[in-house]
Amino acid sequence: MRLALVCAGASLAQGADVVIFNARVTTLDPARPAAEAVAIAGERILAVGGEELVRAHGAGARLIDAGGRRVVPGLVDSHIHAIRGGLSFASEARFEGARTIEEAMARVRAAAARTPPDAWILVGGGWTPEQFAEGRRPNAAEFEAAAPGRRLYAQLFYRAAYVSPAGLAALGLDAQAPPPGLAFERGETGAPSGWIVGGVDAVAGLWDRLPRPGAEAARASLRAFFSELNAHGVTAVIDPGGHNLAPQDYAPLHALRAAGEMSVRVAYFMSAPEAGREAAFFTRLAQERGGRSDDPWLRWLGFGERVTFGMYNVEAPTAQDVADFERVARLAARHDLAVTVHWNSQRNLGALLGAMESLARDHDLARLRWSVAHLHDASPSAIARLHGLGLGWLSQNALHFAAPAFLRGLSAAQRAAAPPLASALAMGARVGAGTDATRVMTYHPFVALQWMLDGRTVEGAATRAAEELLPREQALRLWTQGSAWFAFAEREWGALAPGRFADLAILSEDYFEVPVARVGAIRAWLTMAGGRVVHASP
């Protein structure tokens, strides 16, 4: 079927710089849901349509033959710790997709081979023992055989970290006198296993003991991570802040923007760095920034993740904790800033909802685009309360890595609606999709998309009921338009239509036609951001 030319707000006489043709284009634009070609002028889309675009622009444009591949809008991860993860990426051995411990150790060996002998080798998370055929963590002997004598740190979520003997010596850690909140795990003989266990804050503090990269190394590492995201079709992210990210750690990101080296659009929040001084920090920040920024590549949105320490990973917030949170949130509202709140479970959601109800009496939270992230065990009624207050919901695929023990702790009804994505959309709630990478989840977006479609854990266990599984287009919309809304960018990101940014991905396999079990393996064949090719497969 030959598609008619669509060209709203732009004249064919303007001329295109690039024309992608012989494509199966999913635009997510209701005015033209499907197309065969996309014409691009500068940073933006000039037109979508059929072979007419090739005839009109072929003589003066760069032609890209998509070879019949699927083209989709660039993906937007609405909750990824991309800045923190990017700063360490160049030093890391990542375990994404490794199915055995030997495969994971091969990546450690490769990292040891490419880095200087005195450099740290990091495994910054994004893996689970359940992904390995052995069903366990690597042990000290395996790590040491892969990187003998090297300083090595491997983190497992926020509950444990392995530190090699050379690493322990470099950090001055002693198994007989562990830092507060941490314990050295011991084997059957009583000797330390190399694994250190503890709570979220204590394990995060262990990472903070590692040396930071220098300015140029940090910038190069961020650039490499953004390129890796491009290879998976990601063209924009929303970074919430959080652990291990001090105010000064944003400098390499701003240097990257100043040099014109961004290949991923970044919208970001900042977190309070010090307990008890949250209001003072955010007051100064709001005065210095003067409101949200609208730079097309790097925009600050407001206060995020750890808004106040008393309402961050706290099982039973006190009345004072709630009051302190309200004080900072009202500051954000007065400055027209967005807020995103980290909240894992609905068990203690009442404290947050109480604060938000008070705030909603004085402020339009929907206009401010405030959000709550996670709530992996949320019931439809909990999401309905968020929606009623004007709050959006940022959902990630944490349950893809869920341990059997966590799932056993949920009732059958909770497992069937964990999380209630379809119910949330049916009630009209604003929902953004993401990964929560790089500590607790892989950054691969199509792994997250597959989980939205099938609800299965990494070892294949079914969780959500069929009525909470999403159709493919609906899941893709959450990964594009749904996420873009939370960055105040829904008119520029998330759809392929004239006038929007030319952010798109040509996929290695057809997302709409491959079996669901293969969706997680999809990569980008080519990715463009702002009309520029930022990734191309060999």
Can you characterise this structure?
By secondary structure, the protein is of the alpha/beta class. The protein has 2 domains: 82-208; 215-492, TIM Barrel (Alpha-Beta Barrel). Helices cover 31% and strands 20% of the residues. It has 18 helices and 23 strands. The strands form 4 sheets. It has an 8-stranded parallel beta sheet. A 6-stranded mixed beta sheet has the order 3-2-7-21-22-23, with no helix packed on it. Strand 14, helix 8 and strand 15 form a beta-alpha-beta unit. Helix 2 (82-88) packs across helix 7. The longest helix has 16 residues, at 215-230. The chain is globular.
Q: Kindly report the oligomeric state of this protein.
A: single chain
* Residues in helix, %: 25-40%
State the low-pLDDT regions, or none.
Answer: 1-13
Query: Largest sheet, described in full?
Result: 8 strands, parallel
Radius of gyration: 23 Å
CATH-assigned homologous superfamily of the largest domain: Metal-dependent hydrolases
Overall shape: globular
Brief summary of the model shown:
The chain is of the alpha/beta class. It has 18 helices and 23 strands.
Compile the SSE list and pairings.
Elements: E1 18-21, E2 24-26, E3 34-35, E4 37-41, E5 44-49, H1 52-57, E6 62-65, E7 70-73, E8 75-77, H2 82-88, H3 101-114, E9 121-123, H4 140-146, E10 152-156, E11 160-163, H5 165-171, E12 182-186, E13 192-198, H6 200-208, H7 215-230, E14 234-239, H8 251-258, E15 265-270, H9 278-289, E16 298-305, H10 319-334, E17 338-343, H11 349-360, H12 365-368, E18 371-374, H13 380-388, E19 392-396, H14 404-408, H15 412-416, H16 421-426, E20 431-434, H17 445-454, H18 472-485, E21 504-507, E22 524-529, E23 532-536
Parallel strand pairs: 1-6, 2-7, 8-14, 9-10, 14-15, 15-16, 16-17, 17-18, 18-19, 19-20
Antiparallel strand pairs: 1-4, 2-3, 4-5, 7-21, 10-11, 11-13, 12-13, 21-22, 22-23
